[in-house]
Amino acid sequence: MPVDPTGADLKRFLAEDPGGPVVMLNLLQFREDGASSYREYSERIGPFLAKVGGEVVHAGDLATALVAPDGWSWDAILLVRYPSREAFSAMVADPEYQQITGLRTAALDAAVLQAGVPWPI
Fold first, then answer.
1. Which Pfam family would be a valid example here (predicted)?
2. How far is it, in rounded angstroms, from Cα 37 to Cα 56?
3. Mean pLDDT of 97-103
């Protein structure tokens, strides 16, 4: 299972932009001993988030699944709010950010990275 978006994924992500803020859902399944690599990635991403106006909404381990398909299992969840899809794309295109993405890639066995559009509540 791929864990990083491709150039084509990012083009589609921008093309389908409804405008406004985006909350990125990250469901993470770590490789054996991958949690420490992801922890280092998490510690180093802060300045890149700040630079584009992003913020971590929630980060934590996942526990008991009450409703899920058989075999469905994720280790952690991360929700990150960005002011726009362009902001997210600018962050992942930053050459300095790209120097730390290897930590994330090496940490993960599987991932879901999906854009969420906030409801007007």
1. DUF1330
2. 18
3. 95
- Residue 40, both tokens: 């280092």
Instruction: Please state, in angstroms and rounded to a whole number, the distance separating the CA atoms of residues 17 and 11.
Output: 10
| Region 62-79 average pLDDT | 90
User: pLDDT by residue (tens digit) across 39-53?
Assistant: 999 999 999 999 999
Domain 20-62+75-116 has CATH 3.30.70.100: yes
3-state secondary structure of 99: coil
* CA distance to 38, 43, 55, 70, 72, per residue, from 59 (Å): 12, 12, 11, 24, 19
| CB neighbours of residue 50 within 10 Å | 10
Cα separation, 52 vs 84, in Å, equals 9
Rounded CA separation 83/55 (Å): 9
Closest CA to 82 of 74, 72, 90: 90
Q: How far apart are CA 34 and CA 84, in angstroms?
A: 29
DSSP E strands: which ranges in the chain? 22-30, 55-61, 76-82, 108-116
pLDDT of residue 121: 82
